Amino acid sequence: MNRTSTKIFIIYLVTGFGWILASDWFFGKFKYPQEHLYQTIKGCGFIFISGILFWQMLRRHEQKSRQYFCRLRDMNQELEQRNAELAVSNIELEQFAYIASHDLQEPLRMVTGFLGQIEKKYSDNLDDKGKEYIHYAVDGASRMKQIIFDLLEYSRVGKKEVKYESFAVGEVIDDVISLNKPMFAENKATIFKGPMPTIVAGKSLIRQVFQNLLANAVKYRNPETDIIITLDFKETPDFWEFSVSDNGIGIKPDQLDKIFVLFQRLHSRERYSGSGIGLSVCKKIVENHGGAIWAESEPGSGSTFYFSLKK
Fold first, then answer.
1. Which of 18, 38, 37 has the alpha carbon at shortest distance from 29?
2. CA distance 284 to 291
3. Distance between CA 272 and CA 292 in Å, rounded?
4. What is the pLDDT tens value at each position of the chain, 311 positions in all?
5. How many CB atoms lie within 10 A of CB 73?
């Protein structure tokens, strides 16, 4: 029994036993002669007293219910207001994404183009230091353009309605391997793929997750060994859980949570290219599918990335 029903039951018992003992004592003391009237008075008295107690309890319960209802109504109003504010914020973010994709990239194209013309036209008049400065400026503008493009792509994930469809995960992985065949061949990567299930999800988004994880397995390779990548999955009652393992450089334990943060880099750009957004995109895609993504790794021995998708 819950607290309310237990309380009513105890009050009912205490009231009943208390009334019986008190009435027996009262009528016994005054030796009331008519037994049937005595029983009637006892019963009516018990009903009257218990009725008053239950009435008081119901009043208190109704008062608390009204208070809870008012609090719930206020919370719903606050939630609706915040949802409206969030909708406005999303519109502003979409406007920012439009500006980032057009207005901000155009000046960068102009900077890159004019610097290239300066280098071409005045190359004979520039010393090595001047050429080096131009190279840094062009490289910085190119990286800024790539960062803006990546940020735009990140903002688009989840904005469009995901088209859920049934597809074979193995075929999606084969497509990714086929499209990146030159990269895998150049880096002598061997890929082992176990049997994969047929799931219902956003096909193009899941393809992007495998694309990023396989590309990272090649990028962060151990230069002393050939690349070996293993893909597998297991099924739970509520999720499909996939894994991508490699024998690369690995990740330090205290950095495993940082790798999924937007623009978080663990290595210098000179050593490994990229803007550090790939795993953030994977995280956003997986979470939009009701799942989670995480990694296990040992420095020097490779990493295993896991992600789950809700059935």
1. 38
2. 10
3. 26
4. 456 656 666 676 676 667 666 766 766 666 655 555 666 666 666 667 766 777 777 777 778 878 888 888 888 888 888 888 777 766 766 666 666 666 677 777 777 788 778 877 877 777 878 777 877 777 777 767 766 766 666 666 655 566 789 999 999 999 888 888 888 888 888 999 989 999 999 888 898 899 889 988 888 888 888 899 999 999 999 999 999 999 988 888 877 777 877 655 554 444 545 456 778 888 888 988 889 999 888 888 889 999 999 98
5. 10
SS3 269: coil
Q: Across the strands, what pairs with 200? A: 166
Residue type, 235: E
> What own/partner pairs with CB < 8 Å and gap ≥ 24 does 103-106 have?
104/148, 105/145, 105/148, 105/149
| pTM (global) more than 0.85 | no
What does the block give as tokens for 81? 């207001």
Q: Tokens representing 192? A: 């082992």
Beta-carbon neighbour count of residue 287 at 10 Å?
14
Distance between CA atoms of 297 and 117, rounded to whole angstroms? Answer: 47
The structure tokens 């990286």 sit at: 143
Tokens of 273: 């290219």
Element (H, E) at 235: strand 227-235
Q: How large is the angle between the packed helices 278-288 and 203-219, nearest 10 degrees?
A: 150
Q: Which residues contact 187 (CB under 8 A, 6 or more apart)?
A: 218, 221, 227
Residues 21, 13: Cα–Cα separation, whole Å: 12
293 sits in which H/E element: strand 293-298
Q: What is the CA radius of gyration of the chain?
A: 36
C-alpha span between 14 and 108 (Å, rounded): 84
Count of Cβ atoms closer than 10 Å to residue 234 Cβ? 13
